């Protein structure tokens, strides 16, 4: 799916440079979703992350 970049499988450093970021949509990475389709397990996962960080810090 080439919505944001022409060659999505290739790693191109130019895509993450600060001067190029204004062309991309803000908040494009949202692993838990937003709106009515928001993931119901988000709070559980956040608690799980806290426990993992406490265990390994």
Automatic annotation (TrEMBL):
Source species of the chain: Leptotrombidium deliense
Q: Which UniProt keywords apply?
A: Heme, Iron, Metal-binding, Monooxygenase, Oxidoreductase
Pfam families from the entry? Answer: p450
* Gene Ontology molecular function: heme binding; iron ion binding; monooxygenase activity; oxidoreductase activity, acting on paired donors, with incorporation or reduction of molecular oxygen
> What name goes with this protein?
Cytochrome P450
Write down the SUPFAM superfamilies for this protein, in alphabetical order: Cytochrome P450
InterPro entries per the record? Cyt_P450, Cyt_P450_CS, Cyt_P450_sf
Which family does the similarity line name? Belongs to the cytochrome P450 family.
Record's superkingdom?
Eukaryota
